[in-house]
Specification:
Blueprint (H helix, E strand, L loop, with lengths): L2 H12 L2 E4 L5 H13 L4 E5 L2 H11 L7 E3 L7 H12 L6 H7 L3 H10 L5 E4 L5 H12 L9 E7 L10 E5 L9 H19 L4 E5 L10 H16 L4 E6 L1 H5 L1 H7 L11 E3 L3 H13 L4 E8 L5 E3 L6 H12 L4
Parallel strand pairs: 1-2, 1-4, 2-3, 4-11, 6-9, 7-8, 7-9
Antiparallel strand pairs: 5-6, 5-10
Helix pairs in contact: 1-13, 2-13, 4-5, 6-7, 8-9
């Protein structure tokens, strides 16, 4: 069973309610029908004008009889959602009228459905920017207790099974925080470790990457990684984590043994934490394009409820797979 097939299997077992806020977007309409057809979710809700969605589905020859269609502006929950949103945002100067009006926006309405337990997970980004998706998530779904900064990870699946866990690895953060502080880097590492458990079904071995291994170079950049590593060790004493490590020391056993003798992680890492977004984004694309790996994500991590952001260039199958991946995170 492939990784994606396993995620589909887990999602089918969980039978959750998935919200796709971008209900008039053609690929999203097709994906909604496909998710229900395959039994990946017990319920799928498309958000937007019902007539517009129905017309678009007709043009696409898509049967939405098994899909729930919700128009936020006329939904009976709008007032309750508006009241909740006002309580969340009044300290920022938002008026109650603004809060109610903002609930007409499909992204905010979808996130509020998940926040209040009217749905289990949300997937968006086929037509909205990552910034828009993250803003709605941060203001409504919020982060988990004790986490100040949500981040992202990619599940990397390499054809050579010697790497990571049977060829599968977690890369983080490759899409969200441009230049994390030491504290943010520590949170990224802890969240990525949890993503490793969720998606790879194995215990994480976390490598905090740098251009230095164990003091071979000493700059503010390397010291930030060292501080972040220590923060994670103090907060999660049972987690196998080490740093700072160069990439070869992290994943090649012979190099790890030489550069970081005695390390339980060096040479055997399955979760790689990049020092900043430039390194992370370049790193995952190098492995994907030149290394022939499949990159699944970005998957958002650290939020209180499951939410995923799509690329605006995504395919119907990408949305289906991301839906399964997101549902697999549900309790």
């Amino acid at each position: 069973m492939t990784f994606i097939e396993n995620m589909h299997h887990i999602a089918k077992q969980k039978q959750k309610h998935l919200v796709l806020p971008e209900g008039t977007e053609p690929r999203t309409i097709q994906a909604a029908a496909e998710i229900r057809k395959r039994g990946i979710a017990a319920k799928v809700s498309l958000l937007g004008d019902k007539d517009a969605i129905a017309q678009k589905a007709k043009e696409l020859s898509v049967d939405l009889s098994q899909v729930d269609i919700i128009t936020p502006a006329s939904d009976e929950r709008r007032n309750a959602y508006g009241s909740e949103y006002y309580e969340l945002r009044k300290h920022k100067g938002m008026t109650s009228d603004q809060a109610y009006a903002d609930m007409d926006h499909v992204l905010r309405f979808g996130c509020m459905m998940v926040r209040l337990g009217d749905a289990d997970a949300v997937v968006a980004g086929a037509e909205n920017t990552t910034g828009d998706v993250l803003k709605a998530a941060f203001t409504i779904i919020k982060t988990k207790p004790g986490i100040s900064s949500a981040s992202s990870c990619f599940v990397m699946i390499h054809p050579d099974t010697q790497w990571g866990h049977e060829g599968q690895m977690i890369f983080s953060d490759c899409a969200t925080i441009p230049n994390p502080s030491d504290a943010q880097l520590a949170e990224i590492a802890a969240a990525a470790a949890e993503s490793c458990r969720t998606f790879l079904k194995t215990e994480p071995r976390v490598a905090m990457l740098s251009f230095s291994t164990k003091g071979s170079a000493k700059t503010e950049e390397t010291e930030k990684v060292v501080r972040a590593t220590q923060m994670v060790k103090e907060a999660h004493p049972d987690l196998e984590i080490d740093g700072e490590l160069q990439l070869d020391a992290a994943i090649v056993p012979s190099v790890g043994k030489k550069k970081a003798p005695g390390s339980a992680v060096a040479g055997h890492a399955n979760t790689l934490i990049f020092p900043d977004l430039q390194a992370g984004n370049i790193g995952y694309k190098l492995v994907q394009r030149l290394g022939g790996a499949e990159a699944i994500g970005p998957v958002l991590q650290g939020f209180a409820k499951p939410i995923s952001d799509l690329s605006r260039g995504c395919s119907v199958e990408d949305i289906v797979n991301t839906g399964a991946l997101t549902i697999s995170q549900c309790e």
